[in-house]
Amino acid sequence: MLNKLITAGLLFGLLVGLGAAMTGNPVLQTIARESAPLGRLFINAIKMVVIPLVVAVIFTSIARLGDPRKLGKIGGMTLAFYWVTLIPAIIIGMTVMTIGLRFAPKVDMPAIEAAPIPKLQSITDFIVSLIPPNPFAAAAEGALLPLIIFTALFAAAAGTLAVERRERMIQAAEDISDTLIKLVWWILWMAPIGIFGLIAPATAKLGWGLIQSLGIFIVCVFVGLIILLAVIYLPLLLFIRKTGPVKFFKSTLGAATVAFSTTSTAAAIPVSLEETTKNLGVSDTIADLLIPLGASMYRPGSALFQGAAIVFLAYIYGVPLSFGAAGAIIFATFLVSLTVAPVPSSSVVTMAPALETIGVPVAGLALILGIDRIPDMMRSAANVFGQISTAVLIDKPASS
Questions:
Q1: Cα–Cα distances in Å, from 181 out to 49, 56, 172, 184, 370?
Q2: Whether CATH 1.10.1740 fits 2-394
Q3: Tens digit of pLDDT per residue, the chain (400 long)?
Q4: CA 311 to chain centre
């Protein structure tokens, strides 16, 4: 229901904006112009919840791992595989989008509130800035990346505490996270109005060029996900576990279908567990550990989507991307891709810190959110493929 309402808000905004641009009708132009505050209200609501939500999710995910020394070989291999494969996913998304934008019309976006664009730092200065001298000041200033680093370190330290003390902190963080997720749901219910307030004024000024660019964005995300599977997972499955593409896709069709239709890898966990053990021969121990863990923190399709979306929005808003900026995008996207909460289009909401890192207006998220249903279905299926692939690759080969 919510996705239908969001789509309706997008379509209504496009119709009103295009009508105003093509006919010059004063009524439509007034509606488009005066709806802009609704869009700003929606963006402010998103920004309000991003920092506490990301902090709570990161803390819970890392602290629950416990003492890093107790993770053992399986945990270490799994986390290493997660982190190593997320970087190529982001780079693929950025590269495909950069190529695809050559076919996109030039769009001159209207100004979005006067706001200073951060000066691009050198890599050294960027790394130094990631350690906040005052994490509370970083939170107050909206500097989310340094805050993420502090939270990760704090959560790792909490993971070394006695079980009872660690569980108390994790439970509190989970309660906070659940509350914030409920708040995100409330905000998303106002998304149709907010998206209308952002799309209608923009379309009234930009016309068909914006719509064509959004179509190219969706195609590029789809192509990027296909490349991710073909270049990363399928070769590893074939050479390490002798599992061919046909067998793999046939064995995981049920889980991928659930994830695709519900846009939720968490909803696909039961089917993923069954297909991973019965169809692909993964041990129950490995599957029971890695499938839920992957659903909570490993979303390579979302990482690819976020990398592509940031490049797209930078192009739309005319923000140049230097080599240093690309490195900042990869690092920022890598971190926020681990914090995707189990709510619709959360991959869009959590892009805010990466956008702010390079000076792209956060208001651009509304453009992506308005068309996110299709990319969300595609990346959710890709996420499940990646999670199941991890379990297959980490599991010990069957005894000969």
A1: 9, 10, 14, 5, 20
A2: no
A3: 665 776 677 778 778 877 887 777 888 888 877 887 887 787 677 777 767 876 777 687 677 766 555 445 666 788 789 888 999 999 999 999 999 988 876 665 554 443 343 444 445 665 676 688 888 887 776 666 677 778 878 887 888 888 888 889 989 988 987 888 788 778 777 778 877 877 777 667 656 666 777 788 889 999 999 999 999 999 999 999 888 999 999 999 888 887 776 667 766 777 888 889 889 988 887 887 688 777 767 889 989 999 999 899 888 888 887 777 777 778 777 776 765 655 556 677 677 767 777 778 777 777 787 677 678 878 988 999 999 999 999 886 433 3
A4: 14
Sequential DSSP letters for 320-366: ---HHHHHHHHHHHHHHGGG--SSTTHHHHTTHHHHHHHT--GGGHH
User: At residue 344, what are phi and psi to the nearest 5 degrees?
Assistant: -60, 135
d(CA 282, CA 242): 13
**Rounded to an integer, what distance in angstroms lies between the CA atom of residue 40 and that of residue 62?**
34
Tokens 């920092």 correspond to 51
388, 272 contact by CB (below 8 A): yes
Taking the domains of the chain in order of start, what are their residue ranges?
2-394
CA–CA distances in Å: residue 351 to residues 101, 339, 356, 361 = 20, 10, 9, 11
